[in-house]
Amino acid sequence: METILELHNLTKHFVQKGTFGSIVSTTEVPEVTVSPVGKKIVRPAVTRKESLVHAVDGVTFSVREGENLGLVGESGCGKTTLCRCIVRLIEPTGGRIIFRGQDILKLRSREMREMRRKMQYVFQNPSNALTPRMKIRTILEEPIRNFNLVHGKTELLSRLDELIGLVGLSREVLDKGPHELSQGMKQRVCLARALATNPELCVLDEPTSALDVSVGAKIIDLLEQLQKELGTTYILVAHDLSVVRQVCPRVAVMYLGRIVEAGPIDDLFSKAAHPYTQALISAVSIPDPEIRREEIRLKGEPPSPVNLPRGCRLSPRCSHSMERCRVEEPELVELEGDHYVACHLFLK
Known about the structure:
Helices cover about 30% and strands about 30% of the residues.
């Protein structure tokens, strides 16, 4: 299969101004005031501290056409920031994003606008993603009109009927506002809007996290059905590995801005190599009460992305940590069969 997306050493750092965190730079600003008698008083300089937040820190992976990729990790590991960088909702600090052989970070705004038709994004909270003052009809018409995808009113109405049918909603929804819909229906509208431009890549940022379990299961089933009908490639962000397993044959595990393990989903469940991946899998619930899995608990809390530990980022919490882990950061290496891991236990 042809590779549709490649990331090369992608980074995104934010500057956080404040008192706390490691100091990246300081700016001295002398404070000048005037006394009641008109005399200038210069007080000592005020030091403003800036901290560098390593949200995404050197991520490299590729996605094949028609093969969905799952992206998992705990909250704050950088999944959403990474995905927003992929479609340039936020600008990366460094690295390369190759889509269909073209580095999209070098595209100008007009060229990027055309590229956005091929890359769509579904946000985590459907209530915040839909304009409350617009009817659903207008929300779905907007991307179609922006890219001149239809000609004439008859063709537009036909396309709206097709989209609303794809996501399992009735035509009556078109004349309603977002506040008249349930969370599940709103998420279906968000999917319909993303599919309106016939994208080649769709980034799904935790599409079920704001939904009930039963409604979320229906959305996952819908994603599978749409995959078969349209062939759109997904990048699916989720906390729950069991959700990812249902949709994605490959998965990448992210921790503190870096990919620590990646490979076929069945390999990760049967022979997870990285201690962090093992802990994630041990937390996946098993529907059979007769089967018990030993839960792996990591020590302490994740370090701050402002003040990352030296060496392996998991070393302060890992029971397998050794001296090398606390000094040298491991590189992502291939174990076997497209299975990669960044852990000193597997490095020579």
